[in-house]
Design brief:
The complex is a heterodimer. By secondary structure, chain A is mostly helical. Chain A has 14 helices and two strands, in the order αααββααααααααααα.
Amino acid sequence: MTSAVAAAPDKAHIPPAGKVSTWLSWLVGGKRPLASHLMLAPATIWLLLFLLLPVGVLLAHSVAQRGPYGAVVWAFTSANFARALDPKYLPVLLRTFGYATTTTVLCLVLGFPVAYFLSFYAGKRRETLMVMLMIPFWTSCLVAIYSWIIILGREGLLNNALVSLGLIQTRFQILNTPYAVILGMVYFYIPFMVLPLYSSLEKIPRSLIEASYDLGAGAPATFMKITLPLALPGVFAGCILTFIPCMGDFLTAEFLGGPRTYLIGNLIQNQFLMAQDWPFGSALTALLLITLVVGLVIYQKIEARELETA
Amino acid sequence: MKGRKLATYCGLIYAFLYLPLAVMFAFSFNDARRNVVWKGFTFKWYALLFHDAELLGALATTLKLALVAAFIASALGMLASYAMTRHPAFRGRGVYSGLLSVPLMMPEIVMGVGLLSFFVRAHIPLNFWTLAFAHAVIALPYTASSIRARLLSLKDSRLEDAAMDLGATEWQAFLKITLPLARPAILSGALLAFTVSFEDFVTSFFIAGIGIVTMPIKIYSMMKFGVTPEINALACCLLALTVGLLAANKVLGGASEA
């Protein structure tokens, strides 16, 4: 090895073994793709091992059979999927889809004006209001659920307040109904909607809006023709970010709902922890994943088209 | 006029968001076994918390878990973000970028049951470390995006180029220039990762095994067991901690923008 000749013209080549600092420089310098791949390797291996491989096992289990005592027997079957779609369980899947859609729409309708206000009117208070939006989002959802139980219960604060104000005579049931579950979900996921909406509203050049006013368009026309179309990427992102966790939710339904608000998340939890039917649970999880992947693909298609037309 | 109406509307939404927190705060001082009627002011639920050995044990476990997860997620996030932002474009960068954001898109229940199936199938015992490794996965997108943003904003300064012109090797420039400049973002990412791990319930619920009780798992079993005002006091303490972590993150974020 005549190092003087080899090293000078082509530093980017893999350095000779031995000198640690030369190696580190080569790695950090990144003049070779191999260096980049090596630096990304730890994160990649981590994600393969603890994210993709588990999903793979889950998919494999979803076409396996259930053995005695909750064991999994490797024998191909599509019975788990057939079972998930039979009339006993189909309503659960449809209900989950319905709740997730309702929650997403409600979050959009309720959250859009908030994002609009934060972006266009909040001024100096914007920073504070953004942080205030994040605090409930970072609070443990169990704790918030517990508070909602206190508020919504039959003997709870809401009923107490309404009775003592004389607005109602008989206490009404809201806890353990679909309304409570959807209220809880809207509560948890509205920040997921507001944040992307806000960031896309922020990106709209204010001059475009002024130009629209200068050219004689009124506020409604400006909103429909300028603001809304330019905010669409945020709308789609917000909808996806709200819809996905809603589909997988099981805590809200477990505590705020009742037997008639059973969601796919509850069903999955039950199969894994109580019924010990892992193949069936895996098939349900696979169906959930398929729905989400379809949603994400649609989202990317729309986003790509938005970019093209922009 | 329009702004005024919108402001009122926002006030209502914020009131909705803060109602449960306010209720929890108020009732943590309520001197009644049952939660719905105000019986008088007391600190006894807080006092009870600090004498609950199980709870303190759960707190210790949760803190340790969050520290380990935040450390792993920061280290992996730093290496990955550096290669993504500082290295010249290479084939497959898009794939990596997609892969790094997968945990954000994965519903937690899928993570939970997937990891459970995987660990059981691979005969890996469920313990503290498996849980910490899983938390690191959930936290990774937060550290990676925080550090990536900082490294991108540093890209124009070319301080490393200057250092290398003055004779530093790439490794020296990385160690003496890039790493110190990226430190606020690494710390702020680590704090987010810490919070993510600290608050995580769903994944832990499925793979905690028998011996590991984290704070959210403890709260869950308290809620299953029945309504006790102790939860309100506990929740207030946790909320104070979360707000503290977010404030620290905000300060660090400010430092990294400067």
